[in-house]
Amino acid sequence: ELKVEQNPLFLSMQEGKNYTIYCNYSTTSDRLYWYRQDPGKSLESLFVLLSNGAVKQEGRLMASLDTKARLSTLHITAAVHDLSATYFCAVDDRGGNKLVFGAGTILRVKS
Amino acid sequence: DAGVTQSPTHLIKTRGQQVTLRCSPKSGHDTVSWYQQALGQGPQFIFQYYEEEERQRGNFPDRFSGHQFPNYSSELNVNALLLGDSALYLCASSLGLASFHEQYFGPGTRLTVT
Question: Is the predicted pLDDT of residue B87 greater than 90, yes or no?
Fold first, then answer.
């Protein structure tokens, strides 16, 4: 059974600082997603990572995937308050678009 | 181009009642998946419909059932509601079953069971 673990579960950051969220998963998969969720809202797709070594960047967020280590990272550069949200990684279970989500990382950026 | 839509937005039910949630997929999509997100947790896969048949199912009891219509829209039915069924229910649509087509999530239905 595929398991997805995120850490940390809660992250309080100062504006302007850098930090990384980690996502580990237990079995082979060919697709990993990162989502953002604001309180009471649905999921906003941030990145889709398809292959080993994939790196994608959008603004202050950069995601990478190491399929051999079964590890993805979401790096936050020079955090701003608008990045405060909950971030989820999700892994496709056996290629059928059945996503297994991590528990989420609550990010709070303090000014 | 309309994205994934869900109705209703919010719903309050009493324990033991039954509820039906609805989802219309993004234009051009033919596959619908349902997820349950309890407060403070990540979404959990309930089941997936393609060609009007349930194709995959997560670890949810038979009280959770679904249906897909010829126009690809879908319903999620929950019988004998429990307090623990209170959650945000998310619908996601995609083109076909293969994972190289990304899923798009709807806005969700917030179900409260009292």
Answer: yes
